[in-house]
Specification:
Two copies of one chain form a homodimer.
Chain A (H helix, E strand, L loop, with lengths): L5 H19 L4 E2 L1 H8 L3 H9 L11 E2 H12 L5 E6 L3 H9 L7 E8 L8 E2 L2 E5 L3 H7 L4 E4 L3 H13 L4 E4 L5 H4 L4 E4 L2 H17 L7
Parallel strand pairs in A: 3-4, 3-7, 4-6, 7-8, 8-9
Antiparallel strand pairs in A: 1-2, 5-6
Chain A binds a DNA duplex (30 and 30 nucleotides) through helix 3.
Chain lengths: 216, 216
Amino acid sequence: MKEISIQVIKRLPRYYRFLSDLESQGIEKISSTKLAAVMSSTASQVRQDLNCFGGFGQQGYGYTVSNLKSEIGKILGLQNVHPAVLLGAGNLGRAIATHMNFESLGFKLKAIFEKDTKIIGTYLRGIKVLSDEDIEAFFAENEADTAFLTLPKDSVEPLIDRLYALGVRNFWNFSHFDIAKKYPDTVVENVHMTDSLMTLCYRINDKEKQPDDANS
Amino acid sequence: MKEISIQVIKRLPRYYRFLSDLESQGIEKISSTKLAAVMSSTASQVRQDLNCFGGFGQQGYGYTVSNLKSEIGKILGLQNVHPAVLLGAGNLGRAIATHMNFESLGFKLKAIFEKDTKIIGTYLRGIKVLSDEDIEAFFAENEADTAFLTLPKDSVEPLIDRLYALGVRNFWNFSHFDIAKKYPDTVVENVHMTDSLMTLCYRINDKEKQPDDANS
DNA sequence: TGTATAATGTTATAAATATAACAAAAGAAA
DNA sequence: TTTCTTTTGTTATATTTATAACATTATACA
């Protein structure tokens, strides 16, 4: 069994989203060519990506939207219910807690921890925000394999140490602390907004430098 | 002048962050080998990346941290002041508005627009939240080339149309609407949190499937 | 029932990216 | 001053990734 490249994996959520759109539009079948068009990709790449996991289409017909969506969902493991805790109930933490539909993304939010006493005790999505100090008490009676970290870099390392000691190995990390370097046996997905904004800045300048590349 | 690949560009913010850390630790010089270690990269890649833009090091010595940081800052264009508007002052918009240090990232937040009348009129970082309806009035007296979109997908398309009509060409987009497909002459940097979380889900499952790859 | 068409699955090629190798240059020490 | 060490800048190679080509298979229609 050949290793699936990270580039393919990162495209799977986009396939899944587009297929969800198509499904809600009532479209029943789709060809690799049309799927490539919505993905801004090529038919070849679509077929190669999908065939990493199996032959989901039918020659001469194409792919059944609902079936392909469901298969990609299975590949991503969205039917899972990874119990997770959220560290940080500031604006970002609250945005994550209220907006993300964890149940359809393979996770279940079990607890929220926060340092700020003004926020502790409030409710988010029916979950009471607990104090940072209660983490160990929570894990004594509950399980969680995943943590979502929406905290500034400086305060995050001791918390990661504690979570790691409690068995948490999966991290959705919005901080700049390099978890994977300290704990190589973890799975870490980073969301670095400042990096993203710097990249935007570069690309704006780059475009302005080459104002007219229609004829390149 | 050869085209710089997007992979190189996406590494620049990380170099910049690590160099900032080194600088604040009082470290004055760094070799490509050591920089590669903190980047979890290779010395070859570090040198090739940097040499896309010029020879910033000295043979036999290495790179001067402050100089290299400053050069990468210039490459990224962080000294710019792109005037920007924020669309959406929900939890995510507030998180962005309060946490991001736009001034050191090449942007200047000029205005915030929101639909929810309960939020309109409140202040974020000293900026009064205005109504969506006031966008055109604002642009009549102010300029902005960039928009940060922290809104759900369904409400975003008409707003993008209006912003595009007003001359906005750069988008930091947290929604799932595909701006670049509709307006190919824009620069769009997407932050797709649900995609990121799905990727995490896949990688957790993948790791659990292959529990022991220490001997691979 | 047979043939034409459409579109996949798969193999082969091209392009892009990362790694390795090495020569050149600067600084340190003898 | 000369040599040795360090480490860059750059060229060459290997690997990975994306694209293109093609043979196969299912469906639709005559």
